[in-house]
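Structure (tokenized):
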């Protein structure tokens, strides 16, 4: 594979535009660039999460997610192109089923807290939701394939589930929200 980035500081973006993968230039404030940026931020946050201790199977899954997010970013950078395949969504569905089966049912909302790894997974989850909103906004302006939207939706769900898995890694648990309404109902 040839070197694609021979020069990083090109100065071509100094005027507020950026080049897409099809060589067109768009405003750095365009919906497409927002979606690309949110996906890139999500991938970076997952990189931070991967600095934490975690089970090998979770680590391998998150590394694969990073590769798929890179595909998604590439797809977003080339209008009309497809890099993120529907099979990537199926992998997330299977992971959700597998990890959810190991967890107790939730009876109450949980806070984005617990272990550092679980808390970072929650940060990734919220960034995934933002990336999903950006992709939905772009899809309303320009038609996209279904896989990007579906992938981000499933990924945010998976990150929630993985936060629960990571909280239990060393005998911990979720941090439950103390609902005043539910506490009052329990005493009545």
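Design, position by position:
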């Amino acid at each position: 594979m040839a070197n694609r980035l021979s020069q990083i500081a090109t100065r071509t973006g100094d005027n507020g535009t950026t080049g897409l993968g099809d060589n067109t230039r768009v405003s750095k404030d365009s919906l497409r660039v927002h979606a690309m940026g949110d996906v890139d931020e999500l991938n970076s946050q997952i990189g931070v999460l991967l600095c934490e201790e975690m089970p090998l199977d979770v680590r391998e899954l998150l590394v694969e997610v990073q590769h798929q997010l890179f595909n998604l970013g590439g797809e977003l950078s080339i209008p009309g192109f497809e890099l993120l395949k529907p099979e990537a969504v199926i992998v997330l569905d299977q992971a959700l089923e597998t990890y959810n089966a190991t967890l107790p049912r939730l009876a109450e909302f949980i806070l984005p807290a617990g272990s550092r790894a679980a808390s970072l997974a929650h940060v990734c989850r919220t960034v995934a939701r933002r990336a999903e909103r950006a992709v939905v906004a772009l899809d309303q302006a320009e038609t996209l394939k279904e896989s990007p939207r579906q992938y981000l939706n499933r990924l945010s769900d998976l990150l929630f589930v993985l936060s629960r898995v990571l909280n239990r890694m060393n005998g911990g648990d979720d941090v439950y929200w103390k609902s005043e309404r539910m506490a009052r109902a329990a005493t009545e």
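Reviewer-requested clarification: The helical segments are 31-49, 56-77, 86-100, 116-141, 146-167, 180-187. The longest helix spans residues 116-141.
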